[in-house]
UniProtKB/TrEMBL annotation:
<keyword id="KW-0472">Membrane</keyword>
<dbReference type="InterPro" id="IPR001611">
    <property type="entry name" value="Leu-rich_rpt"/>
</dbReference>
<keyword id="KW-0677">Repeat</keyword>
<keyword id="KW-1133">Transmembrane helix</keyword>
<dbReference type="GO" id="GO:0005886">
    <property type="term" value="C:plasma membrane"/>
</dbReference>
<dbReference type="Pfam" id="PF13855">
    <property type="entry name" value="LRR_8"/>
</dbReference>
<comment type="similarity">
    <text>Belongs to the RLP family.</text>
</comment>
<keyword id="KW-0433">Leucine-rich repeat</keyword>
<dbReference type="InterPro" id="IPR032675">
    <property type="entry name" value="LRR_dom_sf"/>
</dbReference>
<protein>
    <recommendedName>
        <fullName>Leucine-rich repeat-containing N-terminal plant-type domain-containing protein</fullName>
    </recommendedName>
</protein>
<keyword id="KW-0325">Glycoprotein</keyword>
<keyword id="KW-1003">Cell membrane</keyword>
<keyword id="KW-0675">Receptor</keyword>
<keyword id="KW-0812">Transmembrane</keyword>
<feature type="transmembrane region" description="Helical">
    <location>
        <begin position="133"/>
        <end position="157"/>
    </location>
</feature>
Length: 185
């Protein structure tokens, strides 16, 4: 899947991990933000992963070092920090694939990691349970908001708002005109 230069905004969807047979994923040159999802380590046959030139933050997940078929991994020009994972494939990657991330350290970069790096608790991405819980709350909010909006729209459009006036003790606005009743004879 090659989706470069599409101006995608937001986070990398964790649902990409369900594409088990995916060999190439190129999401470079977009406006992707947030963490690199841990679920990308489920792409066990991926050979090329390009996440360069986005606005990704946090650390590179250590689980990605376990992808033995990964031959190309470019995360250059993001806002990543912390130690580059060490593993079978990561030791063969070029420096350029990590360039433009001043917070990264470790092999293959010349900058060694020391005590100055942020604590792991700050760099860990939020758990996927929290993310999954969040969309359900948003969906419930939209649903309840829609129902309330439809009910209030019906009430105000049909001019049946007397109960609203009584409930909240509102006074209807007077526009200065009085009705005249005509008496028929």
């Amino acid at each position: 899947i090659i989706l470069l230069d599409n101006n995608f905004v937001g986070e990398i969807p964790t649902s990409i991990a369900s594409l088990k047979g995916l060999q190439t994923l190129n999401l470079s040159n977009n406006n992707l933000r947030g963490y690199i999802p841990l679920t990308l380590s489920n792409l066990t046959v991926i050979e090329s992963l390009d996440l360069s030139s986005n606005k990704l933050t946090g650390q590179i997940p250590q689980q990605l070092a376990e992808l033995t078929s990964l031959a190309f991994f470019d995360v250059s020009h993001n806002h990543l920090r912390g130690a580059i994972p060490q593993g079978t494939q990561f030791s063969t990657f070029a420096n350029d694939w990590f360039a433009g991330n001043p917070g990264l350290c470790g092999e293959p970069l010349s900058g060694k990691c020391g005590n100055s790096e942020a604590s792991p608790a700050e760099d860990d991405p939020p758990s996927e349970f929290v993310l999954a819980f969040g969309w359900k709350i948003v969906l419930a909010g939209y649903a309840s908001g829609t129902i309330i909006g439809v009910v209030l729209g019906y009430i105000f459009c049909t001019r049946k708002y007397e109960w609203l006036i009584k409930t909240f003790r509102l006074q209807p606005e007077s526009n200065g005109r009085r009705r005249r009743h005509r008496h028929r004879m």
